[in-house]
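Self-study notes.
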Amino acid sequence: HGPLIISKNLKITGAGQGQTIIIPSNLAGAVSSNGPSFEIGPGCGAGNSICELSGISIRSSVGGRKFLNAIKVKTSAELKMSGCEVSGTRASGIYNNGGKVEIYDSYIHDINAQNSFGGAIQNRNRGVLILNNSIIANNSGVGDGGGVYSDSGLVALSGSTIVGNLANNNGGGIYISDTSLRMRNTILAGNTGSNCYTINSVIPLDGYNYLQNCQWGNSTFNVNNILASTPPQLDSNFAPLNGSPVIDRGDPAGYTAYHYVRSNGQVVDLPMTGRAINSGRIDIGAVEYVPPPL
């Protein structure tokens, strides 16, 4: 009853968040006792192979049993996630140990990482983590990084919302050490244990972020960022409330994702379509404001 090991070209497609649900087994010695739900091996990313999870929910907190991690990505492996949900694990929801993880339109929430840094995501061993149009909310880490923890490599966040996370030490939202961080159109606010904490990291912010009490050394703050002392007003679905300062304050060029190019190891901009915009300009964060009906 070990994890599902994916080590070559494979795409698993579910019916959507909350419809295709993976839960821990009740069998003795099942994966929930000692390992992740999915393990992504180095064959993912070799040659032209593509390994992808789409439209599934991994909900770990069921009947007192929990997965250690929902997903573990091993060194040199690559994984794309789209439209997925991860919740309830007893360590980091996603553990990236030197691989490349690219996440779109996903929701990682309500994880209490009892034995690890990085409640939602832990990025180690010079891993690459890219998060696009996704929500990281209400997670906690036992030490640093309630939402995201990275001790090396690269982290890129675009069109995302990181709120309501807690770290016992530093970086309630994100903790970055020896890591290159890029951010665009992202909300980083309302976290406990400081919203953002960095050590030995160069942080070129690409603009149009809402940052609460973020004081980063060695950083380039684009003038289009909102540097705030209070969280933005969001509803229970993480959409801006009427009057929120993030409404119509996103990139005028529209929603642009980050994308990792395997051939040269670079992160590039990828213009995206399909995100509904309720006025002429995108909002900051993962969810758009919806005006009340007239």
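Second protein, same conventions, sequence then structure:
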Amino acid sequence: AEVMSLPCSVSVLKGRLSLEHLNRSLTVDTTGMLDKSRLDGFLCNANGRILDKLMMCRLEDEMILVGNFASGKTTRETLIRGVAWNEEITVMDGDGAIAHLRLVGDAPDRCIAGMGIDPDDVTTDNWTEYGSALLSRSGFNGVSAIDILIPTTDQAVFTVLLEENGAVVVDADRRELMRIELGMLDHREMNESFLPMELGLEKLVDLAKGCYPGQEVHARLDSRGSPIRGIAKLRLASEIGTGRLKLPRGGSIIVTASASTPQGTVALAVMPLRLIEEGELELDGGLVAEVHSL
């Protein structure tokens, strides 16, 4: 397995009504979260576009919110604005206090088993304690992954422990390549340019939970059946830059990330669904990219 350190922001909510406040603010129902529960959801604006993607952990009377890189300040300001005058809820800055590691690839369970952790105890909807670390399970395109939250002061020692049990630490280039190959979206995709449904993340939107910012937009989109664009992985023989890319036959796509491979380039791009369904994309200069849905 390979272990990567993922840049993130961290916020902490404390107060008796924290779960109810988050429930009014996010796209998922937080009211039923128990101690060490995990729940992922979005903070959206009134237009339904993504402000932040939050991976949450309840620890007794505190809620730890692990969000997108560099989004913590905006997220905290948004959450504070939604607190009623008679609610005693504290929103705290945890940036830099907690690191987010992800163990992914071949046999991550073998790695944590070597550390004395029962892999069956690590699930998608709960966090398992191991010393000062918290572990939970996720997956991307059928590949198992384990998310780890660890105080930054303990990160180096914990990483060595993972290495002693077979994990390989990856550098930034390898991390980006794996992220694109597996469709692990981050702040470059999950931002105000896009709706959750355009990224294939409608599972993190609960339209039955009641009102939240952006709910009306999401409901209208759901009633129409599907968005008009989606996200896909591109493979091509030469380099491709990020940003909006005009197509020779008209229209455009938005390339959010790219990385070099021995065969050329792999990239993530948001584009009209009809182009994803075609499976190929003609670019300038006669270049053709393979298109793979995530």
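Instructor comment on the second fold: Helices lie at 18-25, 72-81, 108-114, 155-164, 172-182, 215-224, 273-278.
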